[in-house]
Design brief:
The protein is an alpha+beta fold. It folds into three domains: about 90 residues, ATPase, nucleotide binding domain (Nucleotidyltransferase, domain 5); about 230 residues, Nucleotidyltransferase, domain 5 (2-Layer Sandwich), CATH 3.30.420; about 200 residues, Carbamoyltransferase, C-terminal domain (DHBP synthase). Helices cover about 30% and strands about 25% of the residues. The chain has 15 helices and 27 strands. The strands form five sheets. The chain has a ten-stranded mixed beta sheet with strand order 18-27-26-19-20-25-21-24-23-22, with helices on both faces. Strands 6, 7, 8, 9, 10, 11, 16 and 17 form an eight-stranded mixed beta sheet that branches. A five-stranded mixed beta sheet has the order 3-2-1-4-5, sandwiched between helices. Helix 2 packs parallel to helix 3, helix 7 packs across helix 8 and helix 11 crosses helix 14. It starts with a strand and ends in a 21-residue tail after the last strand. The C terminus is likely disordered.
């Protein structure tokens, strides 16, 4: 009989991962189900896993904080919920080993038999370390760590850095503790300075290409830590740029003003974004290089929040060609539910099976009957008709935005053709057009999905044959830049996803048809959501997003149906209150 383990990440980017006999069969982030961005406490995810996949033999809880306790039973809420369905469920709690679960996610998905795993994170578990023979200890939050990982479950910690708000710097053979911010926290501080959330560093990454070297800026790092003259730590939350100590960095306006008005962006703001990107990626590259040289293993997996930085990931590919690097696509905290469940499986069963991650379409498969029923219920707002991939390609080539909804949703933050919005990459006004429709900031770039066999004709892939998980912002080949302006960033790069027929047959077929029409084997691909909202999960989510936006077309390739919205486009409501729940935010 099969053995099913349910991994749970209760913190931000809350998620569940269901492992059946070592295979990941289901993954869901709570925000997709609750529609609350970055939502934690994945109770809906647990219920969905139970309803769709049945027996839970073991629940494994990973996190960074003490678990709350329920009245009467004294159990944590996740165990309580599962026990109501399965009274004999086994419970394993590894919630004070955040970096271990990150490392396990990357290692077990990498396909490597033995590897160095580098975790570059914001703030992980709060831990206590002994610093001398007199039993003196020091406490702090996990920041970066380096591991040697081997099957079935040997994870040896090589080195770890910690962060704290108050205290002295301590360096030992195994760890470093400091009250200066770590690499990721410095990036978060700049993101906050620019008017974004602490965990919206992807926006800072997008802005960084607009900046340049600015010698008037203060030095951001001293060694491998953020300068104490620039950054104020606030572990375990974010960090702040110290504008009181540095009056030259004081902004003359609300930083959010330039998010939708390019003319209000100052040189300091864009140059600071440039500098944090340049400095941080060099520090992480140095960490990888030192790990490889000292350990003697050139197979490296990178994970943790910084692992989603696709500009840095390409920098590593270009500057560290001797390293066989795997970039985990579910690098953020959501992925720790996967690592926790897989670690316990391999530990308990001593399973030596290597299961390289070939796909990240891990969501629930919704029955066609559910989808067609939803369409019937919405006939007063839409019309739907039979179509073909060739007809959809033609529609896109005529400068129409088309959303696509099919199959299982993607794990992680990036849409890969199952929950995507698609557009013609040849349109020189395409970036502004799609950003306006989605309600996104003007500077944010879009990805391109390219047929795998044509990738190296259009992009400098740094020796890679594929990039199926959209983890790299690569250079566009010089003579192709003007052909795909909608997805070419200001620095002539593009975040690229390659696709072949095995990975996603219907999406691949659509791009083949678009290539026949245009001689361009690429589509602009962005996530199927509006600004500040989670990606759509269900067909109802997809239809509601259609209604609440200026999107008009929705393509269901499995049913060969084109949905056309028949009600007027949603117009943003302007009202005086700042927290109106009935208005479209952003």
């Amino acid at each position: 009989m099969s053995y099913q383990i349910l991994g749970v990440n209760p913190g931000h980017n809350g998620s569940v991962a269901l492992i059946r006999d070592g295979e990941l069969i289901y993954y869901a982030e709570e925000e997709r189900l609750s529609k609350v961005k970055y939502d934690g406490n994945p109770l809906k995810g647990i219920l969905e896993a139970i309803e769709s996949y049945g027996q839970i033999d073991e629940i494994v809880i990973a996190g960074t904080a003490e678990l709350p306790k329920m009245t009467w039973s004294g159990e944590d809420p996740y165990t309580t919920l599962v026990r109501k369905f399965y009274p004999n469920v086994k419970v394993t709690v590894i919630n004070n080993e955040h970096h271990l679960t990150h490392a396990a996610t990357a290692f077990y998905n990498s396909g490597f038999n033995k590897a160095v795993v580098v975790v570059v994170d914001g703030a992980g578990s709060f831990k206590r370390e002994k610093i001398d023979e007199q039993d003196n200890y020091i406490e702090g939050y996990e920041a970066e760590s380096i591991w040697i990982c081997e099957y079935p479950s040997k994870f040896s910690l090589v080195y770890k850095t910690y962060g704290q708000n108050i205290g002295v710097k301590v360096i030992t053979e195994k760890f470093e503790m400091d009250n200066a911010v770590n690499i990721t926290k410095a990036y978060e501080a700049v993101s906050h300075y620019l008017g974004f959330g602490f965990i919206e560093a992807g926006k800072t990454m997008g802005l960084s290409s607009y900046g340049k070297q600015d010698d008037t800026l203060p030095k951001l790092f001293v060694g491998n830590r953020g300068s104490k003259d620039v950054f104020v730590p606030s572990y375990p939350a974010g960090a702040f740029v110290d504008v009181i100590r540095l009056p030259q960095l004081r902004q003359q306006h609300d930083p959010k003003e330039w998010h939708y008005n390019q003319l209000k962006l100052s040189d300091i703001e864009k140059n600071l974004a440039f500098q944090i990107q340049q400095d941080s990626q060099k520090l992480v590259a140095g960490m990888i290089t030192r790990a490889v040289k000292s350990i003697g293993i050139n197979q490296v997996a990178l994970v943790g929040g910084y692992g989603l930085n696709c500009v840095a990931n390409y920098f590593f590919k270009k500057t560290l060609p001797e390293v066989e690097l795997y970039n985990e696509p579910v690098s953020h905290d959501g992925g720790t539910s996967i690592g926790a469940a897989k670690f316990i499986w391999h530990s308990q069963k001593e399973d030596m099976t290597i299961r390289k991650q070939e796909s990240i379409y891990y969501g629930k498969k919704y029955a066609n009957e559910i989808i067609t029923s939803a369409l019937e219920k919405n006939k007063d707002k839409i019309k739907f008709s039979k179509t073909t991939s060739a007809a959809i390609a033609k529609l896109i080539s005529n400068k129409n935005i088309v959303a696509i909804y099919q199959g299982k949703s993607e794990a992680g933050p990036r849409a890969l053709g199952n929950r995507s919005i698609l557009y013609d990459p040849r349109d020189e006004n395409g970036k502004n057009f799609v950003n306006q429709v989605k309600g996104r900031e003007w500077f944010r770039p879009f990805a391109g999905t390219v047929l795998e066999e044509h990738a190296n004709d259009w992009f400098d892939m740094a020796g890679m044959k594929e990039s199926p998980f959209m983890m790299y912002a690569v250079n566009v080949v010089c003579d192709k830049v003007k052909q795909i302006p909608a997805i070419t960033h200001v620095d002539e790069t593009c975040r690229v996803q390659t696709v072949n027929k095995t990975q996603n047959a219907k999406y691949y077929e659509l791009i083949v048809e678009f290539n026949k029409l245009t001689k361009v084997p690429i589509l602009l691909n962005t996530s199927f959501n509006l600004a500040g909202k989670p990606l759509v999960e269900t067909i109802d989510d997809a239809l509601n997003t259609l209604y609440m936006s200026k999107l008009k077309y929705l393509y269901l390739p499995e049913l060969e149906i084109l949905i056309t919205k028949t009600i007027p486009d949603f117009e943003k409501i302007v009202c005086e209150t700042t927290d109106c729940k009935n208005c479209e935010i952003e």
